[in-house]
Every structure is written in C-alpha cells, then in structure tokens.
Automatic annotation (TrEMBL):
Mechanosensitive channel that participates in the regulation of osmotic pressure changes within the cell, opening in response to stretch forces in the membrane lipid bilayer, without the need for other proteins. Contributes to normal resistance to hypoosmotic shock. Forms an ion channel of 1.0 nanosiemens conductance with a slight preference for anions. It holds the Pfam family MS_channel_2nd. It comes from the Bacteria. Belongs to the MscS (TC 1.A.23) family. Residues 102-166 form the Mechanosensitive ion channel MscS domain. It is found in: Cell inner membrane; Membrane. Its main location: membrane. It is a multi-pass membrane protein. This is Small-conductance mechanosensitive channel.
Amino acid sequence: MENLEVKKVFATITSEELLEALLVVLIASVLIFLVQKLLPALASRLSGKPRLYLLASVPLLRLLIIAATIIVVVPILVEPSFENMVAIFGALGLVLGFAFKDYVNSLIAGIVTLYEMPYRPGDWIQVDDHYGEVRSIGARAAEIITPDDSVVLVPHLKLWNALLANGNDGTDRLMCVAKFHLEPNHDVDQVLELLRDVAFTSPFTRTWQPIVVVVENEPWGMLYRLKAYPLEPKEQFRYVSDLTARGARVLAKEGVRFISAPVLAG
C-alpha cells in the first residue's frame, strides 16, 4: 500500500519540475565543492585560532547547504501534504534501514559529531592505532592525515565503540613530550634546570604556556619527560626533534650519560 502511495506521489512530477530540482542540486553541489576547497586553502594561510575556526566551519556549512537543498527540492517535486511526506519518508526509512544500516549509523554519528564536536578540522586525534590531523569531516567519516602523510578515513561510527584522544581539542595548544633516558648517577636538580632552559630557549616554544619537567626513577635509570607547547600544533614533530637534539647536546656537555637501551623489568 505504501509503495503505491509513493508511486502515485512521484507520478505527478513533470519534466520542468525535475529539471528545476536538478538545477538546485547542481548549484548546491557547486557550493559544497567551493566550500570544501576554498576555505581549507584560505585556512592554510592562517595560523592559530582563526585557522581552526575556519576549518571547523566547513562541515557545518556543508550540512546547512544540504539541509537547505532538501527544503527547496522537496516542495518542487512533491506537494508538501502530510500524506505525501509520510509516504516518502516512510519508504525512505525502510530502504535505508535494511540496505544501508551501517552507513546510516555513520551518518547519525556524523550529526552527533557536528553537535558534540569531539573533533574538528585542525584537531590532532588518536583513534585506535592511527594518529593525525583532521583534514575534513564528511557526512560518513572524518579524514585525517598521519605524520607519514597517509590519508586515513575514520568512520564516525567509531564514536560508538572506540576510545578517541584529542590532542588540542579545538584550540591551537598541543602539549609535546620529549623523553630522556639517563643513567642514575647525576645531579637531578641540575638536569631539571637544564631541560627547562632547553624548552625556554627553543625558537618553537610558547614560552607563555607552562613548561614542566617530570622525572621518574626506573629500574634501569632515570626517565625525564620535558613537557611544553609548540607555537603551532602542526610543528609538533619538528618541535620534539628540536627539544631532543638540543637537550642531548646540553646534557652531554655536562657529562650526563644516556641509557642506550632501557632494560625492562622481568
């Protein structure tokens, strides 16, 4: 019965109405394409919060364009009566429910993502074994770029069953950690001071953010973690390399020896 009602609804569509609807969809597709290409290109020329805000506006604008297109197209093709809407959306729900269960779940998770914003374009996230920067957020999945320049698609469905770590959470602050494995016989206070100076004197450090050095006594020696913030999240790997190299040089000058290979406690 419902199929007959749907056929009856679409049987009244004229060629002029169909062409008008296709034109609206074409215009919306062009707008979405421009939003997805131009805004990220503009964001790449910026830094800090303006860059993150611009990137985060891309999925929201795309969703608004899609919603506006549906609002415009449906009255063109179908008389917006209660019976017609029930017939169309009832049939559409059945098709999507049976044929595209996982896809629909990802779409729903995508809507939740836009509402709760657990990650945004420009965020550095860890999902399972994949870590990278969110480049774009689609209706079904987020696209991240790993440090090895690989593109990984993370379905929004992962929100339901996976742990997600967000390094900067919509801000331009991302903590980096440089580790130093040292032999135990040294002046701990001196090493703490030296490593703080290494971070303060780095040209990549946000000196107005906290710089912390923590030390742990391990069975094989001493483990130091130098925690600080780079000027830009995208500089994190270069920044950790700079801290590690400069820290190693300073410690070597003071005669502080490294552990080449920490022995795991058995």
